[in-house]
Design goal:
Beta-Lactamase; elongated; single chain; five-stranded antiparallel β-sheet; 28 helices; alpha+beta; Alpha-Beta Plaits; eight-stranded mixed β-barrel
Length: 707
């Protein structure tokens, strides 16, 4: 997929995840907000931040920075905002804020840049700490020793005075923070209470004596490291110039920042890295692989039919399944591999350098077996299979976007190849994906411009074997014709349904196409009934294939009734062909819809019978008229004993249920004799006639009537 789509999706996900962070953000003692770079609008704020400026957590969202803090304040802090967005560096400053309660406070503002994987700044995090009492304390220190002494004992934060690096005074909060007594600290070097890794920085500040603030690490008496912030000043104390350091415990602040960072880079449900974090990791690993000449494998994993689980068992069970799958993927990988939730039921796996495609295929096989194991969720046993696509670096792609795109394309090939398998990317897949995209775009235009035509194939009755059974197929009694859609492509000519119907079903374009086919087929049937050449009043029933989406559309039976009325056709002039899979959904709803259609006089046929999984108990309860034996069983007749047995069993079962049985795909005289001998009621296929446009069909019908 293109880089900009990855960036846009990453930003959209970040915005969604920031919304989920609102409850967490309200628990930390820091005012937190997030402003996007474009438009400078607020996209997230905790309660503390919103109330600071007279808003609440809802009505502050979407307001510009100037609308929240005022035009004057926005202009003053513009240099800091520019540094964060343009230079992508963190910034910190202090300013006074007139609160909604009328009280002016001094706050410390920290701005953290948010940079997407492509290096573009998309926003900034704002963390505000109320430091009014600190500033007042510092003012008191400057005014008098007496007020300073009082402040040292009243302050909530640690204070230490030192001269030449040796401690001369400390306050109780600092003693409590570090676990020492006053006597244990006085006269000792300040560096003794600093973690070894931070001592050089502290020594440099002592030597240079600047007025500054910086983060460091203090040491508790028991050896615990404590993140702190030092605010360093030079002032008069005990009659001489000394260095004052306010020691601020910043563990809460750091934990809040870490939580924000974690939730911005991890999936809330599974705890795995999210798309943003994964792409950042992938970019780093690709840079390392380019330098070292290593090979990397990227897996794109999508769960098969996951939507069915959500729809049938609920999102709670779906969430449990996703968490279990995430853990199973993690457990199946080795140290150094990275797994992330890419979105929905999609996962990405970056494999550390391996021996090549065979080793990656081994991992794929392990994941197929591991993920597919059943689990208990919501009191039921649930299982789901994955389809896995693999792209290799540098063989298949050299950039992160191409690698993900090619793994995605390989995954879709795995799905189209039967699902529950692992497929490696092949160069032709990219061209095929592009061709499919072009076909999809052109097909949408074809729907708008009605670039479709109908061809028709007759269906004829069969007499009993031995009673005219060897008469030519063209002399058999006509039952009706089946309407078959073709795409009249402006450049390619007629395109068969096998090439565009699966795509139309996947993109829901099958709904307008199916509606068009139904209306055109009924209009043709009405024309034929009025045709003097065929004998006015003679009805030629027309059969129409239904798609799953059509049949499951609410009010489908009403739509058929409206189409019959609009065309002037009678229900007996229409036959609807459904597949076994359509009958496998809610039995009550299916029975109700079929009963309504049968009341209209519409003939109901089960198409391609024998290739699905319809139970006999299910079948006997439905108001059906016909079964059409799938052409795959007819093709082997009469030589294939297995096909003969299956076809004969279908005929016997259909007759036992009171249904007519039609043999579909009859192309030779021996096939016709075989299906006639086993008792088929009718046939359809090239032996009788090929699908043909309406003018040619009318000629055929006239010839058939004469015969």
């Amino acid at each position: 997929m293109p880089d900009d789509r990855v960036d846009d999706d990453g930003l959209a996900r970040l915005r969604a995840e920031l919304e989920h962070l609102r409850l967490l953000a309200n628990t930390v003692p820091v005012a937190i907000a997030y402003y996007e770079a474009e438009g400078r609008t607020c996209r997230m704020a905790n309660r503390r931040y919103a109330e600071m400026f007279g808003f609440d957590e809802r009505n502050i969202i979407g307001r510009t920075l100037a609308a929240v803090i005022g035009d004057e304040a926005a202009a003053r802090i513009e240099p800091y905002r520019h540094s964060v967005i343009e230079q992508q560096t963190a910034a910190a400053y202090e300013r006074e804020v007139a609160g909604a309660d009328g009280i002016t406070r001094v706050v410390e503002v920290r701005l953290l840049p948010h940079v997407e994987a492509g290096g573009r700044s998309v926003g900034a995090f704002v963390l505000i700490t109320d430091i009014t009492h600190h500033r007042r304390a510092e003012a008191a220190l400057r005014e008098s020793e007496e007020r300073l002494a009082k402040f040292m004992h009243a302050s909530e934060e640690g204070i230490v005075f030192h001269k030449g690096g040796y401690i001369t005074d400390v306050n109780p909060p600092l003693l409590n923070l570090l676990g020492y007594t006053m006597d244990e600290m006085l006269g000792r070097l300040t560096l003794e209470f600093i973690a070894p890794e931070a001592q050089q920085k502290v020594a440099e500040v002592i030597a240079a004596a600047p007025e500054t603030r910086y983060d460091s690490v203090a040491l508790h008496k028991d050896g615990t490291r404590i993140p702190v912030q030092f605010i360093v000043r030079t002032m008069q104390h005990q009659g001489e110039q000394q260095r004052l350091t306010i020691v601020r415990d910043i563990r809460d602040r750091l934990q809040a920042e870490q939580r924000i960072h974690h939730h911005a880079h991890h999936d809330a449900l599974t705890g795995l890295p999210n798309r943003l974090a994964f792409v950042e990791r992938l970019e780093r690993r690709l840079a390392e692989a380019r330098a070292s000449g290593e090979s990397l494998g990227l897996m794109f994993i999508d769960l098969d039919h996951f939507k069915r689980i959500n729809d049938s068992l609920g999102h709670g069970v779906g969430d449990t399944l996703l968490k279990t799958v995430a853990q199973r993927i993690t457990d199946a990988l080795r140290m150094g591999d990275t797994v992330a939730r890419f979105g929905g039921d999609e996962f990405l796996v970056l494999l550390a350098p391996r021996a090549g495609a065979p080793a990656v295929a081994e991992v794929g096989a392990r994941l197929l077996a591991t993920i597919g194991e059943p689990l208990m969720a919501g009191g039921v046993s649930v299982s789901v299979t994955p389809s896995i696509g693999v792209a290799m670096f540098p063989q298949d792609a050299v950039t992160s976007a191409e690698l993900i795109q090619h793994a995605d394309q390989a995954m879709y090939r795995a799905k189209s190849g039967g699902r529950a398998r692992c497929r490696f990317f092949e160069p032709g897949m990219a061209e095929a994906a592009l061709a499919e995209l072009a076909l999809e775009s052109r097909l949408a235009l074809a729907v708008r411009q009605s670039e479709f035509v109908l061809h028709f194939q007759p269906q004829a009755a069969l007499g009993p074997a031995g009673l005219g059974g060897r008469a030519p197929a063209s002399a058999s009694r006509l039952l009706g014709v089946e309407a078959l859609v073709r795409w009249a492509h402006p450049q390619r000519g007629l395109v068969g349904p096998d090439e565009f119907i699966p795509l139309a079903e996947a993109r829901r374009l099958i709904l307008p196409i199916g509606t068009w086919v139904l209306k055109e087929a009924l209009a043709a049937a009405v024309r034929w009934r009025a045709s003097a050449a065929l004998g006015q009043g003679v009805a030629v029933p027309v059969a129409v294939n239904l798609a799953m989406l059509q049949f499951q559309t609410p009010g489908f039976a009403d739509m058929v009734a409206q189409a019959l009325e609009a065309s002037g056709a009678e229900g007996s002039m229409l036959e609807l062909e459904l597949t076994e899979r359509m009958l496998m959904s809610d039995l009550g709803e299916v029975r109700s819809a079929l009963a309504r259609l049968r009341e209209m006089g519409v003939t109901i046929t089960v198409d391609d019978f024998g290739t699905g999984y319809t139970s006999l108990a299910h079948l006997k309860d439905l108001p059906l008229h016909r079964l059409k034996i799938d052409r795959s069983f007819i093709a082997g007749l009469p030589e294939d004993a297995g096909s003969m047995a299956i076809a004969r069993a279908i005929v016997q079962m259909g007759h036992g249920l009171g249904l007519q049985v039609v043999a579909e795909g009859v192309e030779t005289a021996p096939q016709r004799e075989a299906v006639q001998a086993m008792g088929c009621d009718a046939l359809q296929g090239h032996l009788l006639a090929h699908p043909m446009p309406e003018p040619q069909l009318l000629q055929w019908l006239r010839g058939h009537a004469a015969a």
